[in-house]
Amino acid sequence: MGRTRTATVPSMTTAAHPRFAAALEELGLGELHERIRRFPDATRTAAEAAAAVGCELSQICKSLIFAADGVPVLVLMDGASRVDLELVRKELGAEKVTRAKADVVRETTGYAIGGVPPFGHRRKTRVLADRSLLEHDVVWAAAGNPHAVFPMAPKDLVAHAGATLVDVREQTQPS
């Protein structure tokens, strides 16, 4: 008997993290529960998520927590790109921006790295969203655990996350 790679799970308790499921209800997005897709294999990385969903790597929305002068900030970035920390630092007017440690990510968001959704966090943080996300009609983001993702129009995702649109994508050097 072969395993299927994807499944739509109607029960919100099995697909999304309970905190994220509650956030969807609070935001009036209850209909999104039925669009959450749960996978038997983890989708912790953008590449794993894109392979599971069957989409382009850039259609994955990464939710990354950084520390700007020690204060957590969420950056939403397309899965094919990297965040330029210097651009984030300038955007925030911070002295120093570093990647947040795993315990800070969990304490701030309530989720483990690899499952952090773009909204529905334990604590409110500043949110920056790279404009590259808007290049797609739909992007896929984590639903609070490393096995579940959901689709959403990027403009809606940015709005629900309370994000500021910025250009913080690392520019690739010409070969």
Overall description:
It is built from 6 helices and 9 strands. Strand 3 (60-68) and strand 4 form a beta hairpin. Strands 1, 2, 3, 4, 5, 6, 7, 8 and 9 form a 9-stranded mixed sheet that branches. With 175 residues, it is an alpha/beta fold. 26% of the residues lie in helices and 23% in strands. The chain has helices at residues 12-15, 18-26, 46-53, 85-92, 102-109, 154-161, and strands at 7-8, 37-38, 60-68, 71-78, 97-99, 126-130, 139-142, 148-152, 164-166. The chain starts with 6 loop residues before the first strand and ends in a 9-residue tail after the last strand. It is globular.
Termini Cα gap: 47 Å
**Radius of gyration over C-alpha positions, nearest whole angstrom:** 16 Å
Q: How many helices?
A: 6
Stretches with pLDDT under 50, minimum 5 residues: 1-13
What is the string of helix and strand elements? Answer: EHHEHEEHEHEEEHE
Structural class: alpha/beta
Which range does the strand content fall in? 15-25%
The shape, in one word, is globular
DSSP helix fraction: 25-40%
Let me know the largest β-sheet: 9 strands, mixed
Q: How many distinct beta strands? A: 9
Please, what is the average pLDDT? 89
